[in-house]
# Entry
Amino acid sequence: MAAPGQSQRPTAGGSHGVSERSHEPVLQQFPEAEWDEAAGAIIAPLGQARALAEWLLGQGVDYCSNVTGVDYLEREVKEKVTGEDGKVETVTRTEPGRMDVVYHLYSMRKQTGPLVLKQRTGREHPQVQSLTPVWRSCELQEREVYDLFGVDFTGHPDQRRILMWDEFEGHPMRKDYTEPFDYEWEPTPHDEILDKHQRGKVIV
Amino acid sequence: MSSATATAPNYELIQQDGLDTGLLEVSMGPHHPSTHGVFRMDVKLDGETVVDLSPVFGYLHRNHEKLAENMSYLGSMPFTDRLDYFNSMTNNWAYALAAEKLVEIEVPERAEYLRVIMAELTRLVNHLSLVGFFVNDLGALGTPLLYAFREREKILDLFEQASGARMMCNYFRFGGLRNDVPEGWLDRAREVVDRFPVFLDEYEKLLCENEIILSRTQGVGNLSRDLAISAGITGPMLRASGERYDLRKVDRYGIYDRFQFRVPYSDGDVGDCYDRFIVRMLEMRESIGILKQALDGIEHGPVLGNAPKVFKPKPAEVYGRVEAPKGELGFYLIADGTPKPYRYRVRPPSLINLTVLRDMCLGQKVADAVIILGSIDIVLGEVDR
# Structure
């Protein structure tokens, strides 16, 4: 039987024992790292992710739970800007596409976390540093990000496709990925239909 | 911390010059009965000793994440059942937990209790099947597995009465549960729970000190604690390696802070197959304790909170995780203000626990590789997604 006071707990499924300021020492140590307030994540400075991860491991962050990629397409953002004369103008700017690799880090011994670490890179030839030498749990998950997002991890000991077959082309988790039209389907040999199919006009 | 430093896997173990006729390369699976699904291990054997092993994934891959990103939030709830199809209830819970963080829904009291009851019944089902399959892999064909399945069926009947389906339950909703349990369900659940220790006593007597099990599993598939932590091993497998880390105690999600229970773990720094087996047997006892407390504490009330009709969260990023029977099951969601998740990621414990498969199998006999794989406890629906 629950005491009445017990129902006034915080939000459902809230993570307890998490220090809210766990990112501040990281930012002091690595002044070039950015803190993304909205996402609650540390953006590792370019080329320093490995050093940052090793430093974190030394601080007791011994458990890397989750590794994944996020694909952001180029998009137009409309913002309201107040000009000098007090007029509100809507300005459209283009936000370039990018690829994030997200790491959720915990400390098993101190039972704290999560600390979210992101490596940010471009969409065209995404390349980040592999953190597998720091946390072994990244091994299969970084392979998965390589497979499904096409991110190249420098320093990964065994970078191969993991879920798709080796001959597969493309990276299905990218936002602009389109399935091949004749995927799992043989076109009929009649010239007209075959021609239409090659132009992408036949809907099966 | 130096001892806990991760070591990159030693991929240059075998340097073969030319063709070495002494080594035999065997492809175990994808239809080998011991792989519990469509999983393949490429094993290199020197006589009967495993000198190299590489797991091959993807036979059951259907890109769960992409499908979910093109669906409404609730639309992928039934699909989470198919991840780890033995434990649909905990899969549901992990997803509901993450989604509830996005919109801050209060879960009613009765729903919280029922969630714990369902999750612990699921844990019983999973550990029962695992132990059954494990001794099946050891060569005790059929009988112990069917003993386990006889008990599992009673719990699946409870699931069917509550949700309409034995395995694909789809029972959780954001903010509670789909429907209340039918009348008399709690009494039937109590009956099952009360009778379960009788079965466990018998099962433990049969298995725990069985000479064949002892000699085949002790000292086989050693996994050190440092490697386990670094490789992100979670669940009973981690605790068998000596680290006492259970999300029910660490995160205290749901209402787990109200229950008295212990976390079984091995007291050494190295866990072998026997440790992993015995930790699961002990966890079943603790689950029964939680179930009894939950069945005592549950009261009448609504089971679904004030969830919005159209689930359209504000832009945010959340990571919700639960202690699934196989380990830490996490859902990482990025909302962008539309009714579909911008990014939907499942952290599959089965896949990540396989990271150390090669490390545990090297130097062991090929017959033991089967046991080691069985002791990891994988379900391919979750490994390949």
Observations:
- Strands of chain B lie at 23-28, 40-46, 49-56, 172-173, 176-177, 223-224, 270-271, 316-324, 327-335, 341-347.
- The longest strand of chain B covers residues 316-324.
- The longest helix of chain B spans residues 109-137.
- The two ends of chain B are 34 Å apart (CA to CA).
